[in-house]
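Incident review: delayed structure delivery

Summary: a single-chain prediction request sat in the queue longer than the usual turnaround. Root cause was a stuck worker, restarted by the on-call engineer. No data loss occurred. The affected request and its eventual output are reproduced below so the record is complete for anyone auditing the incident later.

Affected input:
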Amino acid sequence: MTGTPPGVTWCVAPDDERAARAVWSALAEPGDAVAGALVQACGAAPALAWVADAVATPHPDWAVLETLGGGGDDALRRRVGLGVARWAARWPALDPERDRAAAQRCGARLVVPGDPAWPRGLDDLGVLTPFALWVRGAPPVADRTLAVVGARASTTYGERVTVDLAVELARRGWAVVSGGAYGIDAAAHRGALLGGGVTHVVLAGGVDRAYPAGNARLLEEVVRAGGSLFSEVPPGATPSRARFLQRNRLIAASAQATVVVEAAWRSGAASTAHHAARLLRPVGAVPGPVTSAASAGCHRLLRDGVAVCITDAAEAIELAGDVGPDLAPTPDAGVTRPTDGLDPLARLVHDGLARRTARDVTVVAARAGTTVAQARAMLGLLELEGLARRTASGWVVADGHE
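Output delivered after worker restart:
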C-alpha cells in the first residue's frame, strides 16, 4: 500500500488474496456491487491497496476505472467515489487480527473462492459473490443440496409439512440449507437432523453469535451433526435487516433449488425465491389454505409462474433436476394391472368385455374396433392368460380381473 490511512496499524501483503478477502468481508457490506466489481477486476489485494490509497490521499489514482471498463464514465466514477466514502467511514474500525482471534475462539475458519470447501454455486452471483465465508463446520459443497425456507410466523400445518419434507430429503441423501430463523427455517433444520442428514445455516451476523438466541441449541446441533453455520461477515458482526435480505441470496445460490413452504405476501422467503429465479435455479412453493395469510406469498409465487407446486420430497428432488429412483412417481406408478404387457390388440379386445354382461364375439369386435377374426383370436389368448372367460351366452372379464 502506497498510502496508509491515519491510525491503521495493520497491512496486507500485495499478493495475499486470502488476507485481503478477510478484510473486504469486514470493509464492505454484503451485496456491495461496487466493491465486488473492483475485487473481480483487480484482485482482492490490489483492490484493497487502491482503497487504502484512496482513503489516505485527497486525489486517488482514478486509472482504476479503466480496469472496470469505464475510464471516462462520470457515473462510474461517482459510484466508485461513493464506495470509497463508505469504506473510509469503516476503515478505522478494521482489525483483521481481532477477526482471526474471534474466529479461532469459536472454532470458525475462513473459506475463500477456490478453496475445496467453497460452495461453487456462490460464484454464480457475479459481482455479488461474497468475498469470503466464515464457517463453523463443513459448508455445502455437494451438489445434492436444497434450500427450504419460509415464514417466521409459521403455522402448525407449515411446520409439519416442512419437517416431513426435510426428513425425507435427508433420508434420500440431500442436504438442507436455510436461514436458522424461527418458524419454517428451524423446522427445516430439525427435520433434516431427524432424518439423519446434514443441514446448513446461513447467518446474517457473525458465526460466533447464535441468532436468534432461542435457536442456539439447534445451531450447535447442526454443527455437531456434520452440517455448518456460515456467514459472509466476520465473527462479532451483528445482524441487520439489510444483512438478512442479502443473506437470502446466499441461501438461494448454495442450493440446486429453493422450496418455499409458507410465506406472507411480502416476506424474506419470497425474496429468497426471487434470488433463486434470477440465478435460473428452480423454485417450488408448497400450497396452503387459500384463507391463510401465511401461505399468501406461496400462492403469489405459484400464480406469477415463479414457482411450481411442491407437495413432497420426491417432487422437490425432481424440481432440482435429479434423475433416478428419487423422482416423484406418476399417480399410478407402482400399480400393476393384469393387462400390463399385453399386445395392443389384445388390450383393445379386453376393453371390449364387461364383467357381468356376457358379450358375443361380434359385439366384442364392434366395441374393440377389430375384425371378428381378430377378436376371436385375442379372446382365446385372453382366456389362456386368465383375463377372459367363456360362458354359455358369451364372453366376460375373468373373475378377479378388471
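Verification: The chain has three domains: 17-94, 120-319, 344-397.
Action items: add queue-age alerting; document worker restart procedure.
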